[in-house]
Write a structure and sequence with these properties.
0% strand; 6 helices; mainly alpha
């Protein structure tokens, strides 16, 4: 079935499975990403916002790979295979998630790298919704998922 057709995009099971996968990715990515921004915020380290955001993206990718490795190991997969699988996840999806969250945060916070509790639901929503269609496509068309 071609991904160009509307029938391709209406599989409830695939949307639910890809939502679960995207949620795990969001948990891993947002932990490192938002944690980094928050640490800079509470300690007042004077980095430019774009440097903080770049570091936040890197830390988000690292925590996502770490979480994925732990999740896979909990399913009785040995460390080497779990780590290899975690690195084999779609970095395109994770980077899109990270950039979307950081861009949203920068816009809402007025161009500064700062976490405000009132903005978190929207930041996380944007982080989730950005890669979700790609994760659906990847699962439906290629049979590949993170978990």
């Amino acid at each position: 079935m071609s991904s160009i057709t509307s029938e391709f995009w209406v599989c409830r099971h695939t949307w639910l499975s890809s939502a679960k996968n995207t949620g795990w990715c969001l948990l891993g990515c947002s932990t490192g990403d938002l944690g980094t921004i928050y640490l800079f915020q509470i300690f007042g380290w004077g980095w430019p916002p774009m440097y903080i955001m770049a570091l936040a993206v890197i830390n988000g990718l690292i925590t996502s790979v770490c979480l994925e490795t732990v999740v896979l190991m909990s399913k009785k997969i040995d460390f080497k295979n779990a780590l290899t699988t975690a690195f084999g996840m779609s970095f395109l999806s994770m980077v899109a998630m990270e950039v979307a969250m950081n861009f949203t945060d920068l816009v809402l916070a007025g161009g500064v790298a700062e976490i405000k509790l009132g903005f978190l639901p929207l930041i996380l929503f944007i982080g989730f919704i950005t890669p979700w269609p790609y994760n659906y496509w990847r699962l439906k068309a290629l049979g590949k998922a993170c978990h």
